[in-house]
Amino acid sequence: MKLKDGITFHHEHVTIDLSGVKKNDDCNVNCFDETATEFKELKSKNVNNIIDVTNRGIGRNIEYILKMEKETGMNILCSTGYYKEPFFPKEVYDLSEKELSKTMIKEITCGIENTEIKADVIGEIGTSKDKITESEKKVFKASSMAHVETGNPIVTHTTLGTFGLEQIEIFNSYGVNLDKVIISHVDLTGDLEYILRLIDKGVNVAFDTIGKENYKPDKLRVDLLKEICRRGLSERVLMSMDITRKSNLKTRGGIGYSYLIDNFIPKLKEAGLTSKEIDNMTKNNIRRII
C-alpha cells in the first residue's frame, strides 16, 4: 500500500487489547464510533495516513480496520510481528526464529488472516525495561530475517525509551538496513545525548508519546526537538501519538489524536522550528522509510 499525500501518524493502534495481562479494560481500545469521529477530524487537518502497529496476539483486527477505512477515508497501513513479553501469543514460545520469520513474511507477501491485506511494517516489536528477554530476542532475530527477505521497515518498542542501542546491535548482526528502522518512544528518556547516539547509528527515532505528560512534560519534548533540529537532524525524527487507552480518546476526557496537530506542532513553531523541519517529522521521513 502507498502513503497518500499529507501527514502520517506512523505509530498508532486502531485497535489494541492489552487488557488481559494488565487486568484493566481501559487497555482494550475497540471504540469504533469514537475513533472514527477522531479520524475524520484528523482528515480535516491533512492527516491522511495511519500506520497501525498492532500485531499478532494483541488485538489486531483486519475486518475492523477495513470498516474504519471505509467509514473515514483514512489510509491505514497494517503490521506484522509480535509485541513484547508478557504479551506474546503462544506461538512465539513454540516456534523457532525461522518459523516466526516465515509467518511474518507470509503476512507481508501473501496477506493477513486469509485476506488480501498485506502487512507493510514489521512492528511494533519490543524489549523490556533495561533488558531483552530470550523470547524478545527471538522475535528481534525473526523480524530481522523477515526484513532482510522483504525489505519492509521495522518499528520497535522501547520500554520507557531504554535498550535502543542493544536493539540496533541485533539488527546489525543480521544486516538490517538501519535507514528502515524506527526506534520508538525515545522521548520518554528525556536524554538528548542518548537520542543523538541512536541517530548516529543510522536509525530513525520517534517522539511518539506526545501529550503523555504523566511520563515527560511536552516542554522537554519541544526542547529536545529544537536541539535535534538545530543540529540538522530533522530527517531522522518522526512524531505520533500512540493512543493505547480508551481514556486517551477525547470523548473519554483524554487528549485525543488531534493533540499533535492542534497543540504540539504550534509549540514547535513557537520554539522556532521551520515548516520544513516539521514536514520532515510528519510527512517526508516516513515516506522515505516506507
TrEMBL record:
<dbReference type="InterPro" id="IPR001559">
    <property type="entry name" value="Phosphotriesterase"/>
</dbReference>
<protein>
    <submittedName>
        <fullName>Hydrolase</fullName>
    </submittedName>
</protein>
<dbReference type="GO" id="GO:0016787">
    <property type="term" value="F:hydrolase activity"/>
</dbReference>
<comment type="similarity">
    <text>Belongs to the metallo-dependent hydrolases superfamily. Phosphotriesterase family.</text>
</comment>
<dbReference type="Pfam" id="PF02126">
    <property type="entry name" value="PTE"/>
</dbReference>
<dbReference type="InterPro" id="IPR032466">
    <property type="entry name" value="Metal_Hydrolase"/>
</dbReference>
<keyword id="KW-0479">Metal-binding</keyword>
<keyword id="KW-0378">Hydrolase</keyword>
